[in-house]
Amino acid sequence: MRVLSIDHVVLTVRDLEATIAFYEALGMRREHFEGDRVALRFGEQKLNLHEAGAERRPHARAPTPGSADLCLLVADEPEALAGALADAGIAVELGPARRSGATGPLTSLYVRDPDGNLVELSRREVA
Predict the structure, then answer these.
(1) Bridge partners for 40 per DSSP
(2) Which of 2, 40, 81, 120 could disulfide-pair with 76, CB 3.0 to 4.6 Å?
(3) Is this structure's pTM higher than 0.70?
(4) What is the pLDDT at residue 126?
């Protein structure tokens, strides 16, 4: 067996619209699928959303809002990203900070979504 990449991640959320608004401010776009299901698409990946208490089967054994820790790659320089976050009313919790990513060094800013999930916004450092 050989795993190639991540296709999607599921987030369990308390408030679909608040979550959608937050991630749209990061540049993702809402997508409806399979009737009433909602995802947030970015690049070739997406975040599928499950509303707490109304999760779709199958799901995690104990789906819990606010238990995720995500790292998302961004195109923006950290200073421009910090300005865009401030303009959107999103507080930076930590950063910029140098981190190690899957393919090399990153410069990251950390924010929290409406459920308290930690969202690391990272730019790959160019050698």
Answers:
(1) 30, 47
(2) 81
(3) yes
(4) 80
> Over the stretch 19-54, which tens digit does the pLDDT of each residue have?
999 999 999 999 999 989 999 999 999 999 999 999
In single-letter form, the type of residue at position 67 comes to S
Mapped onto helix, strand or coil, the DSSP state of residue 32 is: strand
Give yes or no: 79 in active site. Answer: no
**What is d(CA 21, CA 113) in angstroms, rounded to the nearest whole number?**
10
The C-alpha torsion from 7 through 110 and 87 to 26, rounded to 10°, is 0
Amino acid identity at 94: L
The Cα–Cα gap between 127 and 112 comes to: 29
Tell me how many degrees the CA angle 23-112-52 measures, rounded to the nearest 5.
70
Residue 127 has pLDDT above 80, yes or no: no
Of the residues 55, 77, 93, 120, only one is catalytic, namely 120
Amino acid at 56: R
